[in-house]
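Hey, I'm writing a tutorial for new members on how sequence and structure tokens pair up, and I'd like a real worked example in the thread rather than a made-up one. If someone can provide the structure for the chain below, I'll link this post from the tutorial.
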Amino acid sequence: MVSNKAKCFISKTPDPFLNLALEYRIFNDHSPNNEVLFLWQNDRSVIIGRNQNPHAECNLKKMEEEKVNLVRRHSGGGAVFQDLGNMNFTFLSSRDNYDRKKNFQIIINALKKFNIIAETSGRNDIIVEGKKVSGSAFKEKPDRAFHHGTLMMHVNLDELQNYLIPSMKKLQAKGTTSVRSRVANLKEFNQIINYSSLSEAIIEEFFSNHNSERNVEFLDHNKLKEIQELSSYFQLLKSDSWRLGETPQFTHHL
């Protein structure tokens, strides 16, 4: 029997702060009894993990000069560069139904539709021919959990290298240090892949995997911004106190 306990939300804004605020609201307010998929894209941004030091992970001066967003998320994981050549996905579920392997398999099966053979690595990445195309981070609460990640379709790799390489200052940080991995765009393996076709493949696999009717909602950001809790969290994510003030202790050597 086909159920209706799965739902997909799609964001139409490229604002990284608003998208993370939306993810936070969905995670906290949506019933954990339902399986949820959330898809979105961000403008040029470096997204750092909850416990990372942006001074050690990013070229902050260059990012400021070139108007690249610095965003700190609430989950762990490493620093990533994102632009509109990247897709973000989030799987949300109850703690009892939380299954990282199943989530990864949905993505892997979607990539098979493009004749791209992918597999997971020991670092919770998805790799194709030995190259990383996707990274993931996770967050759990007593009754619910989420797994979110990236899929590099045609990210500007030159910019990725520019913004994720720190300046000449060497910092000994007490936070999590990103592992510099060999990365690749999915376009290298299939030229026709794009956000529209890949999101459709993932959505199809998601509902099929959960044996659920298709239920997709495009989020109205203007209406959502009127919600006080969402607006407050959006402003927090944009604040310097959160993006920079939450930096773990570190020692600066000259």
